[in-house]
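Ops channel
N.P.: pipeline sanity check, posting one input/output pair.
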């Protein structure tokens, strides 16, 4: 949706519900803290709402453990305490939105649904701008439905008249306030039910399979696949190249390990040319500058520094961006020493530094047939290609 499709004076808030304990998922921690694609489940929808141009702020409903797990609340966001039930958590969020006009719009969303396509938000807001007081995303029921008692399947239920209800659910703030204010007895599993109890019609817009809810442990695998689907994750490729001079009287650090050799590499740091190429390849895929920008040779702090620190930093930048390393391919160009005997140790060390599997790392080596500076054994070169999976921006 373009900004102009929304009234410029209308404010839109999001309420992100992350106050549950996740008993059915049984993950040993609240399910909204489980890691999916390198970041906590709740962070996915928090990032989506924070990036959506129509949403100016929000409320994260979460206990202390969950609050401690997120780096910082986005600008314009505040927090509220969870209630005993979902419905109470929404009421607590409404209480901290006291200074927002009734005319504002609000999206109420389960943090347990990490994959929020911006298009669903756009459809919901368009329904409200079109005059609805409430709108929810729904999907058709794909299976045959039956009434069932115990182990016996009974009458078929007409699924054509049924739909599955997802979140986010969108409301005029005043309508949602009235619905919660007069909620009366009888729990509601979602907010649209409370609105309908007021006699207010609820518009249904098209939902999306990526809004799948994390309810049981098996849903983690389903969500992992859905979030990595092309529409939510993009593949980014970066390349790195580095050269250092071989000198006598220095240890040879290569691929994160020390290798016995007559010469070592000269540089401001430990001059591990292979880790430098890998670091630059990762930073390149992130579009995040290069090793020199983050660790300037002019800074005495990096004099003699171990290069694993640069690589570890690059890996942390991937995680902070909500991405993950798909594959690293490193080529070391050296006449000597022979790299083959050290290849597996290098892979293991690089895997350890980046906390990824060695199966995601390739280490290759070649000579230049005694040609050029590498062929004359004056230096060693390395080149690397990094493939990352990053969230869509
Ligand atoms: N007191 C509660 C209960 C639930 N939620 C949130 O509401 C959403 C939907 O609830 P559900 O899937 O039932 O989550 P849990 O209550 O955590 O799960 P369970 O019922 O299995 O314990 C979740 O994002 C959950 O964190 C909440 O904010 N406050
Ligand atoms: C709000 C909801 O996600 C809409 O489908 C659903 O009602 C939550 O249900 P639960 O019983 O709390 O899992």
């Amino acid at each position: 949706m373009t900004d102009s499709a929304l009234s410029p004076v209308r404010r839109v808030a999001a309420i992100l519900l992350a106050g549950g304990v996740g008993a059915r998922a049984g993950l040993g921690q609240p399910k909204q803290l489980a890691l999916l694609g390198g970041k906590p489940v709740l962070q996915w929808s928090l990032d989506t709402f924070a990036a959506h141009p129509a949403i100016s702020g929000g409320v994260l409903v979460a206990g202390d453990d969950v609050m401690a797990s997120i780096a910082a609340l986005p600008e314009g966001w505040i927090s509220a305490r969870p209630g005993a039930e979902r419905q109470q958590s929404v009421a607590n969020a409404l209480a901290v939105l006291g200074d927002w006009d009734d005319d504002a719009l609000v999206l109420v969303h389960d943090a347990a649904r990490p994959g929020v396509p911006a298009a669903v938000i756009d459809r919901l807001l368009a329904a409200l701008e079109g005059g609805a007081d409430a709108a929810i995303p729904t999907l058709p029921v794909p299976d045959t439905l039956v009434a069932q008692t115990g182990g016996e399947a009974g009458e078929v239920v007409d699924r054509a008249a049924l739909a599955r209800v997802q979140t986010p659910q969108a409301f005029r703030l005043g309508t949602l306030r009235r619905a919660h204010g007069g909620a009366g007895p009888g729990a509601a599993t979602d907010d649209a039910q409370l609105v309908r109890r007021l006699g207010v019609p609820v518009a249904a817009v098209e939902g999306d399979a990526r809004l799948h809810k994390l309810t049981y442990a098996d849903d983690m695998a389903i969500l992992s696949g859905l979030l990595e689907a092309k529409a939510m994750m993009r593949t980014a490729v970066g390349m790195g190249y580095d050269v250092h001079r071989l000198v006598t009287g220095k240890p040879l650090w290569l691929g994160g390990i020390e290798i016995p050799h007559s010469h070592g590499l000269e540089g401001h740091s430990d001059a591990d040319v292979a880790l430098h190429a890998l670091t630059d390849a990762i930073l390149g895929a992130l579009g995040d500058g290069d090793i020199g920008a983050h660790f300037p040779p002019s800074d005495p702090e990096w004099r003699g520094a171990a290069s694993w620190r640069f690589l570890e930093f690059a890996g942390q930048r991937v995680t902070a961006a909500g991405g993950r390393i798909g594959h690293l391919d490193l080529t070391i160009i050296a006449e000597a020493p022979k790299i083959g005997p050290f290849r597996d140790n290098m892979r293991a060390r690089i895997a350890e530094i980046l906390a990824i599997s060695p199966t995601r790392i390739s280490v290759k080596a070649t000579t230049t047939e005694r040609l050029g500076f590498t062929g004359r054994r004056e230096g060693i070169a390395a080149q690397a290609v990094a493939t990352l999976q990053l969230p869509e921006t």
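N.P.: looks fine end to end. The radius of gyration is 27 Å.
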